[in-house]
Specification:
88 residues; alpha+beta; two-stranded antiparallel sheet; 3 helices; 2 strands
């Protein structure tokens, strides 16, 4: 679930670019824990520990909301790699 790259907004000459940057190791872990600890709410009667356990089981099988969030983040960085030279 840990992302390798993410995008950060960078304003250059009046335009805002989504610049892909590598993620530091401690932020990778923080993002993975944040994404997995906030699983979607399928039903209000399902307690939070059960939803968390289900999310972790899905992540072990490389699917689920946290894995989808990581893939979306990587896809966004890949789409904007032309702006990588705006890194700071």
């Amino acid at each position: 679930m840990k992302p390798v790259v993410e995008v950060k907004s960078r304003r250059v000459g009046g335009a805002t670019y989504q610049v892909p940057v590598e993620v530091r190791a401690n932020r990778r872990q923080t993002l993975a824990m944040r994404w997995s600890s906030r699983p979607p709410r399928p039903a209000a009667r399902n307690p939070w520990p059960h939803r968390l356990a289900a999310e972790l089981m899905e992540a072990a099988e490389n699917r689920g909301a946290a894995v989808r969030k990581r893939e979306d983040t990587h896809r966004m960085a890949e789409a904007n790699k032309a702006f990588a030279h705006y890194r700071w």
